[in-house]
Amino acid sequence: MEELELINKKTMPLLPLRGLSIFPHMVLHFDVGREKSILSLEQSMVNEQLIFLVSQKDAKIDNPIEEDIYHVGTVSKIKQILKLPGDTIRVLVEGISRAEIIEITQHEPYFQVDVLEREDTSIKDAESDALMRKLMESFEDYVKLSNQISPEVVVTVSDIEEPGMMADVISSYIFLKQAQKQELLEAFSPKDRLNKLYGMIQYELDVLRIERKIGVKVKKQIDRLQKEYYLREQMKAIQEELGDKDGQQAEIELYRKKIDKAKLPKEVKEKALSELGRLEKMGLMSAESGVIRTYLDWILDLPWSKETKDNLDIKNARDILESEHYGLKDVKERIIEYLAIRKLNEGMKGPILCLIGPPGVGKTSIVKSIATALNRSFVRMSLGGVRDEAEIRGHRKTYVGAIPGRIINGMKHAGSKNPVFLFDEIDKMSSDFRGDPADAMLEVLDPEQNNTFRDHYLELPFDLSKVMFITTANNADTIPRPLLDRMELIEVSGYTEEEKLNIAQKHLLPKQIKEHGMKEENLEISEAAMRDIINKYTRESGVRTLERRLATICRKAATMIVEENKNSIKVNPKNLVKFLGTPRYRYDVSEKKDKIGVVTGLAWTAYGGDTLPVEVSVAAGNGKLELTGQLGDVMKESARAGYSYIRAHTDILNIDKEFHKNYDLHIHVPEGAVPKDGPSAGVTMVTAMVSALSNNPVRGDVAMTGEITLTGRVLPIGGLKEKALAAKRAGINTIIIPVDNERDIQDIPDNVRKKLNFILADNIDTVLKNTILKG
Ligand code: ADP
Questions:
Q1: How many Å lie between the centroid of ligand 1 and the Cα of residue 357?
Q2: What CA dihedral angle connects 643, 644, 645 and 647, to 10 degrees?
């Protein structure tokens, strides 16, 4: 069957090319200097970035008219535009499809054309298959002989299944005369194109073989240096002949100088020079030259041997850590230890620290301070949502638009080979069919192998062994096990009200005042107002929202200073509403009413502790147990266990024996911002059910946590400290906890512990006795 053709009409600006052609699927960059062409580019940029590129019949003509340009060219998309000194613009374009001019609809100030777009939709048959195979064989020979195209290109090209596309891609790699390229462009039928290209490639192969023969002879006669000199001279002559700018050679020389100066390791330098050699041979205008240039730029930008000198002065480090952060005792101590050990033993490879804690507790910012204290540069990379190994390790150069992975990218930003490198959210990495990023991370973090880290794009080993890696996570449970084994965990827990107050007064407020261009004396927030901000406008473990609220106040204050000509603004609990609007959270113990079927539980999530309200209602029915809202599977199970417990103990609980036949129970857990699950809601659900079934209210000022067994025993739970902080935040003064958690009470900060009343329960009876109010 013959190929089908799809025909499409489009309108766009035209740009005449001098001595160049572009094929569909080809990426090319070239310089534009003619004013008319620049206008075409500008027009294209405001209109979908499409442009019709077509060659001039004679490259020497400066101001071509209709007769001077071919009729068939390529609809292309502008990918990038770069203004160079002088009025030159460098553009990067990608060929989209062949097209033929129907009419030039405008000649001045730039060409505008109507074109017919011709896409080849080929139907594959034995003939085209055979042609493709033949062509591929010749192309392979060509690559081997010419020595100018990297062998990976062959792999990429051989994966192409469309005959027309294969011809186009090969055409863009091999050396062809302008007229030949045009002939290929005008071959709309893919089969025709394959045939023509095959002929041309055969001829080129013959030429290459002869050249090679001559080359071998010449090589024997002149030694290497002489040969290089000779070749370079020859190339200059050829370039002059072809009318190429002197710039070309100058650019190559510039690269050579930079490579010499860059203090590259031996292997890297060799690779850079060999790439430069390829660039020189192929000329700066060819399709692949952009790829090589980008590659060389990457090599030159990386800190292969640049290192900052560590400041291991312990006192200085202590001062910086103390002055920039309140509290965080454990982290600071651990850092000081680390420095002390480094001081005693310079070459020592420290363990990788992992800061674990809810958001906004200063994990990121203390790592920044570590970098400052050590006099190292700082880079941060979030691993949240990274699921593809290539994001870490990069794509091979043969991919269009390939760049190195994020590690190498980070090193470039660091500008030195020994930065402090922070991996945020290492617990939020996932993996899919494209490879597991955790494997790549293992290599990065392993001191045994990270001195030769390999990025797919660079293809050269990069030394990461001097980097100080630190990671953060919200939850240690979801960190991939092998990574976890490599790290030393340091817990950073949520803050109490007192701590928040201190952080706000000493750090957050001064920082925000400065950022808003004010002076300390311009804005004063009273302590009572600050406590109100903490309790009524935020509900979090960390201080992120708190910082945002302070920023809001600063913005309003700055406006008042400017608009109302005031000098100093004072914020107190009375006028706080003016700055922040009505409070978002209620925080008054007396407001916690006793209600039937409503109980406050306590949960522990990756985001710190939180309250977990549970509501139960009873309606006449036939014994259904309905669960709605935010219940995970574990929570559903403990609801059912609680239900069974109640059925088995109706007599002591004073509940209708037949309730499971006469009533429907509905348990609802209102949606919160963070999903919660776990067995520790057991006692909460039983209490709510008993309250609803017995129609007795529950004390509103009590919160509870504990797992429950079918016999009513209360089992211990995790995260007591965070839960206690959450209870305090919510204005609760009594919490019921499993008796086995008694020893954890000492971890709760003093000022919170003193204000809370703890009830220890080993059995659900104790819980019910202390919470259900008998009517
Ligand atoms: P995380 O990385 O834990 O999510 P961040 O480092 O982003 O938290 O902290 C949020 C903000 O709170 C930052 O501006 C940080 O400087 C500030 N902050 C947090 N904890 C403290 C602290 N203990 N002392 C001073 N500032 C703090």
A1: 11
A2: 90
Q: What is the pLDDT of residue 589?
A: 44
Q: What is the pLDDT of residues 48-67, one digit of tens each?
A: 889 999 999 888 888 898 88
Can you tell me the distance from the alpha carbon of 391 to that of 87, in angstroms, rounded to the nearest whole number? 37
- How far, in Å, from the CA of 326 to the mean position of ligand 1? 10
Q: Is the CB of 571 under 6 A from ligand 1?
A: no
371 CB less than 6 Å from ligand 1?
Answer: no
Topology (CATH) of 124-211: Methane Monooxygenase Hydroxylase; Chain G, domain 1 (1.20.58)
| 3-class DSSP state of 471 | strand
The model scores a pTM over 0.70: no
Pocket lining: 608 vs ligand 1, CB cutoff 6 Å: no
Q: Is the CB of 358 under 6 A from ligand 1?
A: no
Atom number, ligand 1, closest to the C-alpha of residue 355: 3
- Is 50 exceeded by the pLDDT of residue 2? no
CATH classification code of 2-121: 2.30.130.40
Q: How far apart are the first and last CA of the chain?
A: 90
Catalytic sites, residue numbers: 680, 723
- As a whole number of angstroms, the distance between CA 467 and CA 446 comes to 11
Render pLDDT for 113-161 as a digit per residue (tens, 0 to 9). Answer: 999 888 776 667 888 888 888 899 999 988 888 878 888 888 888 888 8
Burial of 83 (0-12, 13-18, 19+ CB in 10 A): exposed
Residue 368 CA: which ligand 1 atom is closest?
6
Q: What class, spelled out in words, does domain 598-769 have in CATH?
A: alpha beta
Give the CATH H-level superfamily of domain 314-491.
P-loop containing nucleotide triphosphate hydrolases (3.40.50.300)
Measured in Å, residue 476 CA sits from the centre of ligand 1 at 20
- The CATH number that domain 497-580 falls under is 1.10.8.60
Q: What is the pLDDT of residue 45?
A: 84
